[in-house]
Write a structure and sequence with these properties.
By secondary structure, this protein is α+β, with helices and mostly antiparallel strands. The protein has 14 helices and 51 strands. The N terminus is likely disordered.
Length: 799
Amino acid sequence: MITNTELEYKGDLYPSKIVSFEHEGDSVLFHTDNKVILKVTVLRDSLIRFRFTTKGYFSNDFSYAIDKTQLHGYNFLEVTEELNYYQIRTSKVKCKIQKVDLRTSILDLNDNVIVEDELGFHWEESYEYGGNIVKMSKSSKDGECFYGLGDKATQLNLKGKRLENFATDQYAFSKDQEPLYKVVPFYIGLQNKQSYGIFFDNTFRTFFDFCHERRSVTSFWAEGGEMNYYFIYGPQMQDVVTTYTDLTGKPELPPLWVLGYHQCKWSYYPESKVKDIAAKFRELQIPCDAIYLDIDYMEGFRCFTWNKEYFPDPKRMVAELAEDGFKTIVIIDPGIKIDKDYWVYKEALEKDYFCKRADGPYMKGKVWPGECNFPDYTNPVVREWWAGLFKELVSEIGVKGVWNDMNEPAVMEVPNKTFPMDVRHVYDGNPCSHRKAHNIYGTQMARATYHGVKRFAYPKRPFVITRSAYSGAQRYTSSWTGDNVATWEHLWVANIQVQRMCISGMGFTGSDIGGFAEQPTGELYARWIQLGVFHPFCRTHSSGHHGEQEPWAFDEDVINITRKFVNLRYQLLPYLYTMFWQYIEEGIPMLKPLVYFDQDDLQTHYRNDEFIFGNQILVCPILEPNSLGRRMYIPRGEWYNYWTNELAVGGREVWIDTKFDEIPVFVKAGAIIPKYPVQQYVGELEFDELTLDLYYKNGKEKSVVYEDAQDGYDYKKGRYSFLSFRLIGKENELIVQLHKEGKYETPYSKYKINLIGLPFKVKEIEIDNEIIVFDKFSFESNHTLTIDKEFTELHIIGE
């Protein structure tokens, strides 16, 4: 019999009435009479998982995104049956499931609706591929705002947008272009001063509609797989982001040098060119810790090889660069050249490690080396093999980090820029097609690379950076925003992308400073470096097709501005390192959009430009040419202008004058900002004092400083120093209390304290109940105090 599928097409299908439910430990299962099952799992009082199946049973529960090392637990769980609904209650929220159709609503304990289903879960049978297209729609209230979703080149607030998640090589992408390189299907909703999060853990191509099609409905759907999402309750955005970051995992601490300035280009070769670049940085006294080698260092673009004409002795070159403080980073792509004389290809072929098409032949596609096959990184055996390939690069030649590119995966000269969807993957024992594996291919490559670099770099810490990523990739790798363009619009885009990545759990991110494609003017490059030094990852990178893009490719003004701002980054390294420590320990994003910083202030909900760097520094880039100032919003509180030390009261939009060598930077009143002396590279100098810039506040403020040996794993054995400063400011007195944790002994012995904004003349200084003698004239002229680091309480008393 021939079936007419057009006649049988049913369109959207919906759950019918609940016929039974079961409560098993932390989970409640609801069964409908048309075989839909909803499994609600309470992981924490504020973290609830919703998992649907339409076939009467669940497939194997497997996710690459979830950090399985995290422990979850709730304080209270109660399930009750009412006339029309079932209720699941925790100590934070109530979840109601309607008996008639499985629609859910989540309320706070005061019965205020946080989020509720509109149509709720529904699905459409996929006749072409099998399985379902799974859909979810939720009601959206007036004034509701949406944030997150990772690497999106659009407004920070996603209200009114429709977005797509399918990892795609988008060379020279434009503002609002969809999709891009990364897939982070997690968003934050904010309404009525309450924040919540939704993480839709589905690796198929997914879509999100934030009141674009219908102004009162937000929806998300996937082309296959399960409707499987996590609800996260705040009510503060900080709580949502921290819980999501815990759920999907956090990285380990990078070596301190990784937070320095990096220089890259497609491509630096031969060896003499690399040496010239390194020498010029040292000559101009612009700090730099890393130089990157793009694909031209290889022999015919074959991974794990060297072009001996360009680099006759890579081990010697890497060692000589290291003597001058430069760490060498090399690129590795997934495409393995089809060449019977190429050892990597032969090994993978013999062991059957390449991806295959549905009917058996290997997946073949053109990339830089020409025709290539591609390892299946979803196979744990392949990942282990891949990790072992880094032995020569890392442990023998001395490379300090690896850069994974083209791993969306990108394929040239095909319409969809990637693998055909029939390619098969092992998927860690859950065999599937590329439709399911595509979005996590780059993450699994980065994972395998991370384990290889970590194995052979030990006892030092690894460094890996990737272009493509899925939620959870932050456990293994840093990232950058891909092939941007040298335009003012892209400077605006880069600022928003990095903020968005930070609140999407993937904080160790930066952009190609100056733009990858095309050529920036000196002014654009200067403005970009002024922003880039405040991003977690800081690297200039460009396409060699468009000319030179080193700081000295421009005029003397740009060289001086680059030096000034890179110097500032190196001074702020202990502040940056502390930011990173708080990210890995507590899931606190390193950059904070203003709405994250103060969600109760409606003025922050649509701000794009301003952000908080760490916890206490406010940054607002200059995003237009010929600007000697700009309007910006200063959040509520008191803030000191970093350049003038003038005090500004926040909660308002103001005009800020700037110069070509400045951007608006403010420091929160009461902050204590740690600084190192300027070094040309991390570890160049030994120094005997830590500078602390102390900004007076009439009130209380806490500041922290984390330090350790700057590399290695002793910090995991308690050998770190964590300083907690408590500032108490009064009209006539300033008190600083210091508490130290950890077994690490910092190499310096003194604090040099710069007192900024003191409203009184100093009459007396007391340290740990002892009055100290100080040179009154010199102290009053520069308000600088140098004291032993072992103090616990400092009193500065006014006249």
